[in-house]
Design goal:
Catalytic activity: uridine + ATP = UMP + ADP + H(+); cytidine + ATP = CMP + ADP + H(+)
Radius of gyration: 17 Å
CATH class: Alpha Beta
Order of helices and strands: EHEHHEEEHEHHEH
Strand order of the largest sheet: 2-5-1-6-7
Strand content: 15-25%
Structural class: alpha/beta
Main location: cytoplasm
Bound molecules: cytidine-5'-triphosphate
Subcellular location: Cytoplasm
Keywords: ATP-binding, Cytoplasm, Kinase, Nucleotide-binding, Transferase
Number of strands: 7
Shape: globular
Number of domains: 1
Oligomer: single chain
Organism: Peptoanaerobacter stomatis
Distance between the termini: 10 Å
CATH superfamily: P-loop containing nucleotide triphosphate hydrolases
C-alpha cells in the first residue's frame, strides 16, 4: 500500500480553512479521501461546570488532546480505522458519540494549531496556511458563532479581544513560517486551490 498523503490546512479563526478543506475533499471525491478537524480533539470538559468551560482558553495548544490526535493520525497512516470524538460547541465539551473514520489515500486535516506543534508538522506531507486579513476573519467568526454556535455578539467580541486575538498573534501567525504554501484569501482563491489539486494528482500518479 502506498503511504497516504496527509495534508494539513491551518490559519486563523474565520480564515476559510474549512472552505479550502471542502474544496480539496470535493475535488477527490472519486478517490479515497477523508477529512479530520482538529476541533474534534478539544479536550473533554464534561467534568467541569458550564462556567468553568466558558472560561477555558480554546485558542491555546493545551486546549487540545493532541496526543490522541497524533495517535489517530498514525493509525490512519498505517491503514487502520479510528473512532473520532465529536465536539459540541454549544455545550463546550465532547459528545458521547464517536464517529468511525476509515483509512484513505488522502487525509485532509484542518485546524488552527497544526503548524505550531513539531510532532504534527513532522507527520504532514503538505502544510497549507490560509492567510486572511483579521477584519474579514472576525466578521466571519461573528456571523458563524451566532448562527451555528449559539453565541451572542458580546460573547464573540469579548472572547476575540481577550483570548482569540492574543493567541493568534502568539501561536498561529508565527506558525506561518512552517507552511509549504500560503494561500491568501482562502476559499475564494481558485488559482491556489487548483495548483494544490494538481500537486495532489501528481502525488497519486507517481508510484
Ligand atoms: N472555540 C470556541 N468555543 C469552544 C471551542 C472552540 O469558541 N468551546 C473557538 C476557538 O476560540 C477557536 C475556534 O473555535 O478560535 C476554532 O475554530 P475556527 O478556526 O474558527 O473554525 P473553522 O470552521 O475550523 O475555521 P474556518 O473559519 O477558517 O473555516
Amino acid at each position: 500500500m502506498k503511504k497516504p498523503l496527509l495534508i494539513g490546512i491551518t490559519g486563523g479563526t474565520g480564515s476559510g480553512k474549512t472552505t479550502v478543506a471542502k474544496a480539496l475533499h470535493e475535488a477527490f471525491k472519486n478517490n479515497s479521501v477523508t477529512m479530520i478537524m482538529q476541533d474534534y480533539y478539544y479536550k473533554d470538559q464534561g467534568h467541569l461546570s458550564f462556567e468553568e468551560r466558558l472560561s477555558t482558553n480554546y485558542d491555546h495548544p493545551n486546549a487540545f488532546d493532541t496526543e490522541l490526535m497524533i495517535e489517530h493520525l498514525k493509525s490512519l497512516l498505517k491503514g487502520d480505522s479510528i473512532r473520532v470524538p465529536i465536539y459540541d460547541f454549544t455545550m463546550y465539551t465532547r459528545k458521547k458519540e464517536t464517529v468511525l473514520i476509515e483509512p484513505a489515500d488522502i487525509i485532509i486535516l484542518e485546524g488552527i494549531l497544526l503548524l505550531e506543534n513539531e510532532k504534527i508538522r513532522e507527520l504532514l506531507d503538505m502544510k497549507i496556511y490560509v492567510d486572511t486579513d483579521a477584519d474579514i476573519r472576525i466578521l466571519r467568526r461573528l456571523m458563524r458563532d451566532m448562527k451555528e454556535r449559539g453565541r451572542s455578539v458580546d460573547s464573540v467580541v469579548n472572547q476575540y479581544l481577550d483570548v482569540v486575538r492574543p493567541m493568534h498573534l502568539q501561536f498561529i501567525e508565527p506558525s506561518k513560517k512552517y507552511a509549504d504554501i500560503i494561500i491568501p484569501e482562502g476559499g475564494k482563491n481558485k488559482v491556489a486551490i487548483d495548483i494544490i489539486i494538481g500537486s495532489i494528482k501528481q502525488y497519486l500518479r507517481n508510484d
